[in-house]
Amino acid sequence: LHSKLPEVGTTIFTVMSALAAEVGAVNLGQGFPDFDCDPALVEAVYQAMRAGHNQYPPMPGVPALRSAVASKIEALHGRKYSADSEITITAGATQAILTAILACVRPGDEVIVLEPCYDSYAPNIALAGGTVVRVPLTPGSFRPDFDKIAAALSPRTRALLINSPHNPSATVWSAQDMLTLQELLAPTDVLLISDEVYEHMVFDGAEHQSAARFAGLAARAFIVSSFGKTFHVTGWKVGTVAAPAALTAEFRKVHQFNVFTVNTPMQHGLASYLQNPAPYLQLPAFYQAKRDLFRAGLAGSRLRLLPCAGSYFQCVDISAVSDLSEADFCQWLTREIGVAAIPLSAFYGDGFDQRVVRFCFAKKDETLRLALQRLRKL
Ligand code: PMP
Ligand code: GLN
């Protein structure tokens, strides 16, 4: 068979989770909570199933959930999206991003990604026949480099993919960053795919600057989110896309022949659970406490902590601890020390190795303490 993705193997997240399970390591690799979601959310889904919400929902999603999402965006970011024509419920952010790319990228189009970036972006662009244009984030700080983004724009640029809060670097774009981007894109017709799955994990009193807050960005943006991250249910695979009606119409043409619809009872359960904003409003404090516990535990070690402004990831520089490559270090750390991590090189097209690895702190405090006990030996 002539592979469409010859360079793609099994994702690093699957590989490291399998290794962690095999050797019994604490798994701080793949990003998912090791604690359960709110029982009230499970109860809401159970009630939906009991009420008979078990057949296909409308193609764009259960209306009550689309309305709840539109209200939430309006309350948090001040922009009104039509639940009918501008919000679509997806099978997680992964399907949302692929569908947005398939809907707008033609063979030969260029799509700019900012490296390091989530591992699905480049293969998604390749599947659409597009050309991946990789622009590095500023080395060290992982801040956007707008001169480099400007230099990468060409008449063939169809879309730009951004992600704040950022996986893996845990940086968060400021309002000024978004304004600068808005100005940069103003003279172009470049579309924006804004991956905002960690929208509710922004720390130290800062606010998430959704593309929805900036008229010039919102007008060209597919804004992607995921209930898996926000409500500790990564296995449910339910996400959302907010986009202006014309973009949503194109998105839905692909969506209807891709998954057609997303599971019904989860959508009803999420719609009723979203009526109470407390769970997502409490999320920054919840994860900030875990970040602080994890950082305090590593403070005296030879792993150098990088800043963590958002997301549920903490990156560390390993150069004082080991001469191994990031990938080999993660293998060694999992097998010999009993803690799994993810090498940042997995987020680069060319496997760039800067001696930094990523830990996920979306774990019970006791899990973090056990990992810290082991990591402090380094
Ligand atoms: N984008 C980023 C940046 C992610 O980290 C993830 C998942 N970890 C996704 C998208 C995919 O989200 P989902 O599980 O909802 O498909
Ligand atoms: N997004 C999660 C991470 O970065 C993992 C999702 C996956 O396994 N594909 O760890």
UniProtKB/TrEMBL annotation:
InterPro entries named in the record: Aminotransferase_I/II_large, Kynurenine-oxoglutarate_AT, PyrdxlP-dep_Trfase, PyrdxlP-dep_Trfase_major, PyrdxlP-dep_Trfase_small
Protein name as annotated: Methionine aminotransferase
Entry's Gene Ontology cellular component terms: cytoplasm
Superkingdom of this protein's organism: Bacteria
Keyword Transferase: yes
The UniProt record lists the keyword Transferase: yes
Required co-factors: pyridoxal 5'-phosphate
One MF annotation (Gene Ontology) recorded for this entry: pyridoxal phosphate binding
Gene3D superfamilies named among the record's database cross-references: Aspartate Aminotransferase, domain 1 (3.90.1150.10), Type I PLP-dependent aspartate aminotransferase-like (Major domain) (3.40.640.10)
CDD domains xrefs: AAT_like
Family, similarity comment: Belongs to the class-I pyridoxal-phosphate-dependent aminotransferase family.
Keywords: Aminotransferase, Pyridoxal phosphate, Transferase
Source organism of the structure: Extensimonas vulgaris
PANTHER family the record matches: FI04487P
